[in-house]
Inverse folding.
């Protein structure tokens, strides 16, 4: 299916889906630069995640996109996964409706999937789907054109599309290497699909997670290698899973994240610039240094070494979705490469 056919199909189904939430689909915006976006020396991007959750947020979502589009000087946007809550149906029609909304962003949009749109679709309220089948549908709907962002004015990106992971994308902006990696909650899909009557991961589930994590690790390694080669000021990684959830309990199984946490420590420790990890999943805005000396996470993941230069930022989600995170790339010589602020949708 061509992109024109796919987008036409998406727009047709979107109107039906959104009517259930008592809102009409807003047509795609023209691909023109936002006010103040032309010939600027500054650069900024937006990060959102765990949105929209439920009918009320689905109805509000077009207006929230309008608000982001109206923010002066935003050059790029990221959605760090969970385009729905975990207790709603994982239908293709819903995916296509969200895709149509994503293509209303006036700036290029990079999206990395969350667990609610495929991993957790085995749940009865989510439709008792086979999660791996839903994963393939997510890729079909959102990554139908390889190496291209979403949004009304998409741009080319590097990706792992040739390896079967088109969602792992990267690009360079203002001396920063940016990469999305497909790493999700529910222990990166190693949690059993209880809704299908299973108590242990299936062989297909284990194989999929192993391949996807290997691809994520490779994507991280390539991103850091390029950062060293280009003397990048910073590396920014975007994913759904909050591997350092402040509400963590020792009974939680987070073992699937072990190799990624160690890789982030190794790569960050051998990189002279700053490292930023943006995530969602736990729904509460948080900023910390989870892999610095003295962090409890070094013991949780049995990490060798530390990453003093890594800052993690979790965006608000679910009921806390009242704002978007606007991130500014600061001029050389500033106290940090990136700074950010939460911007209320109502402002």
């Amino acid at each position: 299916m061509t992109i024109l056919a796919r987008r036409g199909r998406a727009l047709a189904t979107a109107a039906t889906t959104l009517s259930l939430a008592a809102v009409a689909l807003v047509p795609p915006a023209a691909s023109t630069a936002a006010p103040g976006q032309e010939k600027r020396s500054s650069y900024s991007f937006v990060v959102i995640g765990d949105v929209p959750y439920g009918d009320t947020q689905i109805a509000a979502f077009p207006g929230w996109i309008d608000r982001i589009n109206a923010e002066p000087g935003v050059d790029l946007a990221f959605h760090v996964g969970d385009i729905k809550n975990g207790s709603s149906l994982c239908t293709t029609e819903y995916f296509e409706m969200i895709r149509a909304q994503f293509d209303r962003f006036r700036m290029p949009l990079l999206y990395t999937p969350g667990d609610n749109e495929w991993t957790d679709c085995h749940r009865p309220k989510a439709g008792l789907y086979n999660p791996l089948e839903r994963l393939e549908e997510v890729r079909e709907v959102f990554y139908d054109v390889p190496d291209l962002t979403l949004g009304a004015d998409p741009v080319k990106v590097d990706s792992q599309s040739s390896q079967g992971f088109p969602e792992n994308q990267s690009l360079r902006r203002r001396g920063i290497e940016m990469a999305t990696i497909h790493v999700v909650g529910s222990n990166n899909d190693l949690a059993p699909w209880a809704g299908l009557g299973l108590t242990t991961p299936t062989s297909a589930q284990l194989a999929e997670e192993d391949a996807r994590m290997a691809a994520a690790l490779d994507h991280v390694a390539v991103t850091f290698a390029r950062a060293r080669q280009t003397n990048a000021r910073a590396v920014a990684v975007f994913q759904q899973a909050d591997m350092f959830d402040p509400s963590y309990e020792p009974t939680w199984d987070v073992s699937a994240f072990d190799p990624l946490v160690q890789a982030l420590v190794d790569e960050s420790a051998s990189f002279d610039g700053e490292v930023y990890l943006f995530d969602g999943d736990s729904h509460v805005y948080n900023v910390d240094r989870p892999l610095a000396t003295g962090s409890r996470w070094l013991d949780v993941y049995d990490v060798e070494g530390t990453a003093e230069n890594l800052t993690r930022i979790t965006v608000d989600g679910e009921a806390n979705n009242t704002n978007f995170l606007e991130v500014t790339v600061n001029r050389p010589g500033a106290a940090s490469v990136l700074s950010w602020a939460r911007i209320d949708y109502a402002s």
User: Anything to note?
Assistant: The chain has a mean pLDDT of 91.
